[in-house]
Amino acid sequence: MLLLVAPALVSAGQDPDVLRVTGFDVRSVEVRGAVDVEISQGDTAELLLRGEPASLNPEPFHVRGQTLVLGAAAGSGKSAGGVAFKLTLPTLDSLLISGSGDVFVRPLQVASFSLRVNGSGDAHLFALHADTARIDMRGAGDVQVAELSVQELHLRLSGAGDIQLGPLQAESLQAVLNGAGDIAVADAGRSAALAVTVVGSGDVNFAALVMDEANVTVVGSGSVRLGP
């Protein structure tokens, strides 16, 4: 069983170096640099930031269209560090993590969701309920989803990272692993249709899954374990 515990990142009113931002309308989030982020689903968009005064000036975030960029000021190619963000959004369509950030996403219910990690960052999702979900890991980071219920799930891992899933319900599951990483389902789950492709030395462990049909392709020294 995957057990996720999110740290208390920001408490408004308890730290003199806390900023509160409202009045923005976004559906996507991009996280840059070595920052800590906690995302929750709620009725009103709100962003809290905590850090040393020097790290909050200029403000280490900006809005680009429908995307909120955390960890970089507007017009700056430099990523911030040492800043903690606590974000509340009514909905979240996509999340991109570039760098070594650590992102926690509390239970999320949306129509479709896309997660992409580039680099050594980590993403921890408490629960995801969606019609369609895509998880794309490129690098050496880790993705953990404690609970997942979707119609269609697409997993892609390139590099040495890990994707770990808790209890899983998916009508259709497609997993592609290219490299030396690992994809695993830790708890019992079900998928009506499963397709797995492994290229390289990576491992896929779906032994906990019950499935109606499976299509498996392995090129290299990698392995795939399936359930009964």
From TrEMBL:
Transmembrane segments: none annotated. It comes from the Bacteria. Pfam families: DUF2807 (PF10988). Residues 28-186 form the Putative auto-transporter adhesin head GIN domain. This is Putative auto-transporter adhesin head GIN domain-containing protein.
